[in-house]
Structure prediction request, 169 residues.
Amino acid sequence: MSEATKNIKEPVRKTKVESFDISRSDETLHLATDLAKFIKDNKLSTTVQGKEFVNVEGWQYAGSRLGIVPIVDHVINVSTEQEIKYQAKVTLFDMKSGHTVGAGFAICSNKEQGKKFYQEFAIMSMAQTRAIGKAYRNILAWIIRAAGYELLQLRRWSMVATRPPFSLP
Prediction:
């Protein structure tokens, strides 16, 4: 066998990734089923008080199935001498239409419960992650709910759990 014959490689076969048209109800139901399976199989949710909540990676998967990707517009340092604090804005870009289809804002601070000793880069990164999740939630909450997941964001659970019960005087 000659040297030229040895180096010939088989053509790479690209796997086609199925995309969904959410204007069609049959495709919407198929997407919800796909999301539920993928999120469960890849452990992209967290159980809180017996209910399942989707992590940001699950939201990103949902968006990617629709051709929607996040773009971090900005991360602003709004820290003071006593606090490390960042604000992030993310927009969602629809690759099919070429339009912005959503946005999300978020803030993260080392004054939050459990974050007192976090390094600055971690606070900044968490603001971006929260903004990504919020942007997707703003436009895709209905499909995540149809997939069987709860919508209350995880960090709100700590507020709910520590809030004193309401009672009438």
Notes: The first helix runs from residue 3 to 6. The beta strands are 45-48, 51-54, 68-77, 85-94, 99-109. The CA atoms of residues 56 and 133 lie 5 Å apart.
